[in-house]
Inverse folding.
């Protein structure tokens, strides 16, 4: 299935992003359809949007906020997706879950993506808190992550460095939104780009 | 061809918007394919984006500015569009041309859309100035607008009121970008929504 001469598709997401969650439910099938590897990478809207771009949260932006709500519900209807959690400006702290994901990506790679999917589901569909070691522990168990590996990840101060390095690398490459995709260097922003990406992969670009 | 039981599709655009220009080249064919009327309406990014949303011009926004440039060239390659004028933060004053368009829309309706197309082409393909009565006059001539009608439009102080009324009406309806579409009340933002709109019209929504 893999094409060793090509780099994997890159999927960047923030756990607090509903559009990142929507994309997370579709990107693996998209990559598989084109026999491409795909790597999931963390990004933080709090850094790119609020600090680097100096914008306010999108749902708080006049005119655009209410448009985005309509676009999200239209997208969900079309792709038969749901969201139990209310769409509002996020107040959750994505750092603990993103740090754990960054650590797993390096030190326990096979668990990283299943963990991200479990965390996304818990947050957006179960309305669970995913912001503390206590709330992350049961998630780690559901994907079969050994208790001692979880304990090591939570205790390892390197986790925050790994996340920071991943975030900086994304910013260097121009990643600013969630979801964001890079395909052989070509950037695509937004979950409504998946159909375009499908065409891009089919035609090998244009 | 018309479907009297349905309101026309609404296409909102700013003359200084390259994405509005791209959309202007495609929207009439889209509407015709679905046997729908379409009405072209002015909007001003300087009001919605800069004043109401309090954002900076998109091409000046860190990270997003360079992304948008890449997206524009990718879009042009795909749809075989060109742009002679350089993509940079607009410095042109869109008020004179938008006022004339608003006036024509009310007082000389058959000339309004041809005028908008001629102005878009002159600005983006010929790199012409379209910001003064002197530069607008030859454009009006190319679409066959009688000299006396053009003179009346330019002299009529009502033109700025008509534009302001149109802009306010758009803002009331949540119009914030260029291009922006409203289809039976449903809002769509961005020229990369045309394929989605095509599906929306085919399926009569979802």
């Amino acid at each position: 299935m893999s094409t060793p001469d090509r780099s994997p598709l890159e999927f960047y997401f923030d756990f607090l992003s509903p559009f990142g969650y929507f994309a997370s439910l579709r990107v693996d099938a998209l990559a598989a359809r084109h026999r491409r590897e795909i790597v999931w990478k963390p990004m933080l809207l709090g850094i790119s949007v609020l600090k680097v771009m100096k914008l306010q949260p999108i749902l708080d932006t006049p005119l655009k906020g209410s448009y985005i709500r309509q676009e999200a519900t239209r997208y969900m209807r079309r792709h038969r997706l749901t969201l139990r959690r209310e769409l509002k400006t996020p107040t959750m702290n994505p750092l603990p879950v993103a740090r754990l994901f960054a650590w797993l990506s390096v030190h326990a790679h096979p668990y990283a993506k299943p963990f991200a999917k479990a965390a996304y589901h818990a947050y957006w569909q179960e309305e669970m808190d995913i912001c503390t070691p206590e709330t992350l522990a049961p998630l780690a168990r559901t994907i079969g992550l050994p208790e001692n590996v979880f304990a090591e990840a939570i205790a390892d101060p390197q986790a925050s460095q790994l996340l920071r390095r991943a975030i900086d690398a994304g910013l260097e490459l121009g990643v600013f939104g969630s979801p964001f995709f890079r395909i052989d260097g070509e950037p695509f922003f937004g979950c409504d780009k998946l159909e375009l990406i499908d065409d891009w992969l089919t035609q090998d670009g244009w």
In short: The mean pLDDT of chain B is 95. Residues 9-202 of chain B form a domain with the Glutaredoxin fold (CATH 3.40.30.10).
